[in-house]
Design brief:
This protein has helices at about 1-15, 20, 100-110, 130-135, 145-165, 175-180, and strands spanning about 40, 55-60, 65-70, 80-85, 120-125, 170-175. The protein is an alpha/beta fold and about 180 residues long.
Length: about 180
């Protein structure tokens, strides 16, 4: 039974089942302003979610340990634009634009290390929350707006292209709901 629950949750988070399980919202929310610093989890040169020490210990096959120091590369040759996975624990159907510990942690675990090879950009977006996905699984769908998160990511991308890219190469990185957007 538990295995089937995980399969259904995976289908919802990847979007294969989600549109059929979500109630549709009734109003159109305002656009985000990606010119505001608080609309981004990561941007180059800031003390933010990506500005963490990623120094690590490497364990060789023979068990020998070595320390691998890490530093962001402010002169990285390309940019990385990251759209994080479904992590929001907000009690509403769509997340708000305030970074909670879950958004901060996913950046630390999945994206911050990229700052050693690229300039990092990670916008906040109003994704469908885990709360809404759980509600859909129990047959009580909430009025989650899948287009809201998508539109946020499009607006962040447009802002990035207009103000930051300057013709540089860019790697798009997404995971789970973040890859759908």
């Amino acid at each position: 039974m538990l295995r089937h629950l995980f399969v259904v949750l995976a289908l919802i988070t990847t979007g294969l089942l989600g549109d059929r399980c979500m109630a549709q919202p009734q109003t159109q929310p305002a656009k985000n302003d990606y010119g505001k610093a608080e609309s981004w989890l990561c941007r180059p040169g800031r003390q933010d979610a990506c500005a963490v020490d990623m120094t690590t210990t490497v364990v060789a096959a023979d068990g020998r340990l070595t320390r691998e120091t890490w530093a962001a590369n402010p002169k990285a040759p390309v940019d990385c634009f990251y759209v994080y996975p479904t992590v929001s624990l907000d009690p509403t159907p769509n997340s708000d634009m305030m970074a909670g510990p879950e958004e901060q942690n996913v950046i630390h675990h999945q994206f911050a290390r990229f700052a050693s090879v690229c300039r990092v950009y990670a916008p906040l977006y109003r994704q469908v929350t885990l709360t809404a996905l759980r509600a859909a699984l129990t047959g009580k769908p909430m009025a989650a707006d899948r287009a809201l998160g998508y539109n946020d990511v499009v607006e962040a991308w447009k802002y990035y292209l207009e103000h930051d890219n300057q013709g540089r190469g860019v790697v798009l990185i997404g995971h789970s709901q973040g890859s759908r957007n």
